[in-house]
Amino acid sequence: MAPAYLSIHGVFTTPVRSGQAPTEVDLYAVVRECTNPKRTGGSDWKMVVKIADPSVGTISSATTKAFTDIPINVFAQKEDMPKVYQVGDIIRIHHLKVSSHCDKPQFNAKIGMMPNNSGMSRCTFSLFDGPGKGVGEGASNDPYQSSLGEHTSESPAEVALRLDALRQYWSDVGAAAAQDNTFTISVSDIKSEQLFDLHCKVLEVRDVGGATVLFVWDGSDAQPFPPQDNTDSGGSTGGGATGGGVAGVEAMGVGAIGAGSTGNGSSTAPTSCVHFPQLGRQCWMPLQQDEPAKEWTPWFGTAFPVVIFDRAATENLPAAGRWIRLRELSCWIRDGQLQGLFVDRSKWAHVEPNRVWLDAAAERLETRQVAMWAPANQQGGMTRILHDHQPLHTLREVLMAAAPSRH
Q1: What b/e readout covers 10-39, taking b as 16+ CB neighbours within 10 angstroms?
Q2: How far is residue 255's CA from residue 91's CA, in Å, rounded to a whole number?
Q3: pLDDT tens across 269-292, in order?
Q4: Closest CA to 282 of 300, 313, 308, 247
Q5: What ranges in 155-294 are assigned the alpha helix state H?
Q6: DSSP-assigned letter for residue 130
Q7: 67-121 tens-digit pLDDT
Q8: pTM for the full model?
Q9: Residue 85 to residue 143: CA distance in whole angstroms
Q10: Which stretches within 27-149 are classed as H helix?
């Protein structure tokens, strides 16, 4: 007998025997987002897979009017984790445990061997192509990854119907609905006293003296500070810069840090000495003679450095050229440069390109707005040029241009 697959809405509204809600369910859903795996305090790793289907928007709670997705907390050995190729792919999962947290629905999935080698978990999954390869054309109905023991008694035709319905849903409304939340800001809007999310493209992953630096881009410019400014262990900046705390750095895996609490779940500036590696400015400036110009190399916008000190978080980092969402970042200032900090609670996930950011960057390129933070309305200007009819160029354009060239 085939499993009784439920919609996400059906999971939380369909009673089973004696009017009790289901504790284990089987379902198909679209992967809306998945975070990178992180170590737990035990032997397992954990990742969060956010899923959606056409019914998810009809679920509500006392604190949320309508949900856009429901999280699955996946626990497994690292090699047993779901390896989602891209957002919009489809997951089929059996014996998924239904739960809730803070009045919000969620699922829990233990994949693979149970603790103390007490047997295999009943929970299994398969991953299928989403609509990225075409709805009904080119997308395979065979799973590209399945956990040990995963199977279904559905016929191939029944599987195809479910997959095509979810591919059509994601093509029609899902991708558009997977936009950024209210915590997502552009690099130009970063304030040093708050945690924030970024939706950005990875330019490079670099090892720098005991830390890993992600250089990311969204087409905007980070706020500049005087070269002598540095965020100290109390969260303030020297040299007259404003803005303050290093939020969320209480557990970055690089030394003991004392931090106050704002009472809303976010941390304020640390109150004791922070034993960070002494990193200064981090610059990404490829040269044309060092590497061929890539199509995705942006001419405008800050290559924003995000510093990761936790070695466990540096495993399976995104490749250059991929779009990712960085969640709950903090930041500091080093030698006048604003830098992101990947703190203990931070996480990242692959996402689709941000069309809003790309359109803004294209307009900026067309109008040759080379510096968003340049002072405006200066009497007489800050410099004099002999050819004011010529467009302005960025240093990145100059260095990446093939010789001979004039700018």
Answers
A1: ebbeeeeeeeeebeebbbbbbbbbbbbbbe
A2: 39
A3: 332 334 455 578 888 877 655 555
A4: 308
A5: 156-169, 175-177
A6: -
A7: 788 999 999 998 899 999 888 899 999 999 998 877 788 899 999 877 767 778 8
A8: 0.70
A9: 12
A10: none
